[in-house]
Specification:
The protein is of the alpha+beta class. About 35% of the residues lie in helices and about 20% in strands.
């Protein structure tokens, strides 16, 4: 009961914040419980916010475990999607975040290289992924939850949100030019729709402002990939470990294997991954994937971070 009263109190203050007069336009506030404390935040996109009222006022947050498309402009494209269509879905993700009441936690409150605190927001994450407004994404050795991955598979099968026109082999979620001055090797991040894990596309390419960068994966045609799926299900040992995995997820995982030569983590156990990997390796050795060709999987328009929100805007971000 006390928690309910607290929520209503903060909702009331939120309404005051949004309707208060002033010389500048008020930012739309949303209620988020941060480590159990109600706070008013501003979602600038679907997976990050800035605290605008409360003890952490001014704190910037990055939300872990999922990724929404960039909302600074029409920069993503793949398949039959236009960049403007995917930009509209990025805005839906922002709107979905702004309209809810969410719960976020950070155990250590550490900040990343951009000064943001990484928060875990399970209810928001599930909502964004379920609606197809975001995709599961982990970095390094982090493992996505089976529950969240199931929600993504469900959204893919139902063709919701970003999956409405099909599923690319990889989704590019960041693009960097080799002349940006990053220490070490330059890379663009690629995320697997099949298992939510991310890979790095290392390169030495220089992209001009507003130049499109596309990652080329080695892929079978959709029909050929589904033929391989049927062959996998015809093998009793493999069929057991891929039970419950939708055909479209298997088809994507096959093309991801052909491109990176490693099985995706779509089975229930590591042993299952090995069974699947051994089968795919034997099919590769037998020449089963020789008909695969290199095709653009997904693309992003390159715009340096410092130019995303400054005026005048780059021409490619105007529409």
């Amino acid at each position: 009961m006390r928690l309910l009263r607290s929520a209503w109190t903060w909702l009331l203050s939120l309404g005051v914040l949004l309707t208060a007069s002033g010389t500048t336009e008020a930012e739309p506030g949303s209620l988020v419980f941060i480590n159990g404390t109600p706070s008013v935040v501003f979602f600038n996109d679907g997976d990050s916010f800035r605290v605008i009222e409360g003890s952490l006022e001014g704190t910037k947050a990055r939300l872990g475990g999922f990724n929404t498309l960039e909302s600074h402009g029409p920069v993503h494209s793949w398949g039959d999607w236009s960049a403007k269509e995917l930009y509209a879905i990025a805005k839906y993700a922002t709107l979905n975040a702004r309209r809810g009441i969410w719960h976020c936690e950070s155990k250590d409150m550490k900040r990343d290289g951009y000064g943001r605190i990484l928060f875990d927001c399970p209810d928001l994450r599930k909502s964004q992924v379920r609606n197809g407004y975001a995709m599961v994404m982990t970095v390094g050795d982090d493992v996505p939850s089976k529950e969240l991955l199931d929600l993504q598979w469900e959204a893919i099968v139902a063709r919701r949100g970003i999956w409405a026109h099909g599923v690319p082999t990889f989704v590019m979620t960041s693009v960097h030019s080799a002349n940006e001055g990053y220490a070490g090797r330059t890379y663009n991040r690629l995320v697997s729709p099949a298992d939510g894990r991310s890979d790095k596309w290392y390169h030495d390419l220089v992209f001009g402002e507003c130049e499109k960068a596309c990652y080329k994966a080695r892929e079978l045609t959709q029909q050929e990939a589904f033929n391989v799926v049927r062959e996998l299900r015809a093998d009793p040992q493999v069929a057991e470990v891929i039970r419950g995995v939708p055909d479209i997820i298997l088809a994507v995982a096959i093309n991801e294997y052909i491109t990176f030569d490693k099985p995706r983590q779509i089975t229930a156990t590591p042993a299952g991954v090995k069974v699947l990997g051994d089968k795919l390796a034997s099919m590769k050795a037998a020449g089963r994937f020789n008909s695969a060709t290199e095709k653009p999987s997904s693309c992003m328009v390159a715009v340096p971070f410092e130019r995303w929100y400054r005026t005048p805007k780059p021409v490619c971000l105007k529409w």
